Amino acid sequence: MESGDEELERCASDGEDERIAPIKRKRGGSVPGKAANIQPDFDEAHNKLWKLYFAENPRFSAKYFRRRYRMRRSLFIRIMNAVVARDYHFRQLQDALGNKGMSSLQKCTVAMRMLAYGCIASA
Questions:
Q1: Which residue of 25, 62, 93, 101 has the fewest C-beta atoms within 10 A of its own C-beta?
Q2: 37-67 confidence digits (pLDDT tens)
Q3: CA neighbor of 65 nearest in space, from 81, 76, 78, 79
Q4: Once rounded to an integer, what is the mean pLDDT over residues 94-108?
Q5: More confidently predicted of 108 and 5
Q6: In angstroms, rounded to a whole number, what is the distance separating the alpha carbons of residues 66 and 70?
Q7: Dihedral in degrees, nearest 10, Cα atoms 118, 92, 60, 62
Q8: How far apart are CA 69 and CA 109, in angstroms?
Q9: Which strand (E) or helix (H) includes residue 11?
Q10: So where are the chain's domains?
């Protein structure tokens, strides 16, 4: 039978081995044979949206904008600026790798169209 000191020393040394040993994870990173993740090009989508609706000479007229978004372009921009100033989630953010996410214009466009047409985000 072990004395109290020997047992304590054995327990302490067992704990050190566990901390030093590499942790085996249930799942690894990328799985061999699987396709790589496709990074969406949010910058290109933002530029396209800007050229179609918000540029100085947009492709679609003010009439078309009003029909699509159910408001004037100037009102949309005022609302977008107010929402971005108020809510952090509507600002353009970066992920952990430094990749830019959706622009404020894209986020507000999606939200406004959802409100205008009454659809839900998960539809």
A1: 25
A2: 777 889 999 999 999 999 999 999 999 999 8
A3: 76
A4: 89
A5: 108
A6: 5
A7: 70
A8: 8
A9: helix 4-20
A10: 42-117
